[in-house]
Amino acid sequence: MRHIQETEQDNRMEKERPIYVTMPSLAPLEEYTELLKGVWERGILTHNGPLVQQLEREICAKLELDNFVVVANGTIAIQMAIRALALSGEIITSPFTWVATVSAIKWEGCTPVFCDIDPETLNMDPDKIEALITKDTVAIMPIHVFGNPCDVEAIDNIAKKHGLRVIYDGAHAIGSHINGKSLLQYGDITATSLHATKLFNTAEGGGCIAANNELYKKLKRIRFFGHDDNKNVVEDGFNGKLTEVHAALGLANIKYYDEVLEDRKRKYFYYKERLKDNRKISFQKTIHGDPNYSYFPVIFDSEETLLSVEKKLNKHQIFPRRYFYPSVNTYTQIVAYQPSPISEDISKRILCLPLYLTLEIADIDKIIALLNE
Ligand SMILES: Cc1ncc(COP(=O)(O)O)c(C=O)c1O
What we know:
- The chain has 373 residues and is of the alpha/beta class.
- The protein contains 12 helices and 14 strands.
- Helix 9 packs parallel to helix 12.
- The structure holds pyridoxal-5'-phosphate.
- Residues 73-75, 97-98, 100-101, 143, 169, 171, 193, 195, 206 line the site of pyridoxal-5'-phosphate.
């Protein structure tokens, strides 16, 4: 009886515990509150406080970066990058992204021009860039999709040949490498995100990594209303600051960065090994560098298959995410439609499966079994 009761309870719990596509990686609460005590004691909540400065130093040390300007979120990081480079005109970007890439371009008064993607890497196809360059083109903004490194060399060569700037949307790219260095160190500026869903998070947050000291200093002024060190307004800046409360979370979480990275990689290959013989599924391909395995996207043979798999998983309280869907070039409320057939096709067939630190192997086994059924 007791056994039956327990089984019934287990079943109920099983039903009641949903599995989402991601859950934030969080340090133990006591470690966070310990850092908050200092915030309370100092009474400094923002304005480039000591924890923001410490977080920037620790991120640089951990990711082997020369600089990192911590900001309020990844969208503002892209806007700040555009502003720091004083861009005005057309920016060639990828339609296979989160809408923020495009809204940031538009908020800075520039025009997004869509370059279709490579169907295997899911990144902007460098062979398609040059045909899109006009007299108004000022920059290229590729995205390292799901942390998969773009062909940075090819993009750099095109940019140099045509006198264009390169801003990478590296929202997913923390922890990825290419040619032995952090992927965040490519382009004139890389903008990244420290959002709750990212591998390393400050709840909301982001950052800019600049190619040189001049740009780095300019980004810091833009973040603080355009003020210089003497409080004179010398730039057309705005408020891009991160709070001490968020920085404290980042400092607590950064201690677990290696563990989170390792866990993602282990689970990524666990999934892949067990799904590799499924004929209805294919995977994103890495050609350049080492990704961070921060997402586990699967591409189905058709949207129909995707929808039936999604329905089946949902029935079992498993909620993967159609990401990126739809292709951003089809958001006609905010952009004029420019065809990008590969991105439009992939976005209809791609699903990101649950992948996060507290996800259990038993949960992955269940997802795999449902997919292979
Ligand atoms: C590719 C990409 N770019 C930009 C952003 C914007 O970052 P944030 O949410 O920190 O503003 C995201 C957010 O998830 C993203 O996925």
